[in-house]
Amino acid sequence: MEPVALLTSHQLPLHILYFFQTILDTPKRGRFEERMLDYLWGDTSKEEKRLIRKLDFFILTFCCCSFFFNHLDRQAFANAYVAGLKEALELSGNQYNVLLSMASAGMLVGQIPSSIIIHKIRPRIWMSSMVVVWAGLTMGSAACKTYAQLCAVRFLMGLAEASTYAGSIYIMGSWYKSNEIAKRTAMFTVAGQVGKMFAGAMMAAIHESMEGHAGLEGWQWVFLIDGIITLPVAIFGFFFFPDVPEYTDASYLSDKERQLALDRLPPKKEDGHDIQAWSLVKRVMGHPLLYVCCVFSVLGSALQSYVVQGLMLLYLKFRKDIDGFTQSEVNTLPIPTHAVGIVAELSVSFFMDRYNRRMSLGFLLCSIQIICSIVLLVPGMSVAGNLTALYLSASAYGINPLLYGWSSNILARTADDAARSVTLASMAASDGLLWTFWGIVMFPADHAPYWRNGYIGMLCVSAAMVGWLFAVRWVSLFPLLGYMV
């Protein structure tokens, strides 16, 4: 323990840092627990394990909580739509899909600027500020009276949320080694699934207990509560997020630990944070790595269409009166899809880090989506058959640690931080571009409960992903150090 170094180097209340320090100083554990933690932190020196524990606590707490509330908002919007928002704002046709696309458009516009800004403004300041902005906009959603107002709010929310995904992946790639990143990426993306699960339960509880309270409808209370409980995450980030190893001033890291954080990672180029426009454009766009990763990201995102577009919610809403589903059942029955996603993501990440078998995992995930699409494509399929296929389709979330874990490992070998962050942001922006039209074209809400074009499209996406895995494997074999010039 080094309490003096930790407690005198930061302008925070001493008892807060001491509290965190006591958490991170590991007590004696049993053999099974030690084996599990060794699997998480690796078989390394005590000093490195202690550093990784600190990184996990402070980095993953902020990143995972940010992503949790990011997805809580997205799912809360979907739940609100089927619980009164549609009727309150008199939404019709595919306006639901347009609203989803507005958030995606905001994220598309904001991704690359955000990835450049964090090389000028410290990530803990920029990313935490964006959490405050989107929390305020979430609460503002409750006050929207028209479709146009909600479109504007959703676009601005997407703009603010753009810093979260690519920014978090960039920060994790700045601190963790190649055999550590997939598990952390999975924990990060799993936080989003937990947020979606919580949104369904929260919507059901609020619909029953808060409907009509203070003259507000249940869906309005969801947005208000969602925004309020997001704010503590921003406060934590302002004070404790460590930025990147090259210039971190985190008080809970000693000078020795900061040097260890640099020494344990591959060397970086001296101009790796250079964001001069023409230099950065040449380094990012002048080789195939950007394009291979972006197509990989688009296909991986499209592979998750069934859950991302909330098809089960739309299906259950259509079947509500026919089959006698209650509103609470409509909100809660989709929750297990996120449990399936969590299991898939954690399983893929641990299998990747331990056995390094990325191709076979990708083939397995694509095969499951092909089977689910064939089942859903059958006209007149029973409710049980549809729900089973939609539950299993959530295994597509397992593509996230494969996608960003593999891409982060490839990009880290370039030793160019600015190019790496912009490439990651370009991948996320490509996803945003996809969602500005994909849901409207393939899964319009007014086509419920049967989306023939969408099911056929998913068969094509799954087949294309199988082929593209070979392209990613090809680029992963490049001698990438010094390649971005």
UniProtKB/TrEMBL annotation:
Main location (coarse class): membrane
Keywords from the UniProt entry: Glycoprotein, Membrane, Transmembrane, Transmembrane helix, Transport
Pfam families in the record: MFS_1
GO terms for biological process, alphabetical: pantothenate import across plasma membrane
Topology of the protein relative to the lipid bilayer: Multi-pass membrane protein
Alphabetized PROSITE patterns for the sequence: MFS
A GO molecular-function descriptor: pantothenate transmembrane transporter activity
Residue stretches making up the Major facilitator superfamily (MFS) profile domain: 59-485
Coiled coil: none
Record localization: Membrane
Transmembrane segments annotated in the record for this chain: 125-143, 155-173, 185-206, 218-241, 289-315, 359-378, 390-412, 424-443, 455-475
GO CC annotations on file: plasma membrane
Protein family (similarity comment): Belongs to the major facilitator superfamily. Allantoate permease family.
UniProt name for this protein: Major facilitator superfamily (MFS) profile domain-containing protein
Lineage per the UniProt record: Eukaryota, Fungi, Dikarya, Ascomycota, Pezizomycotina
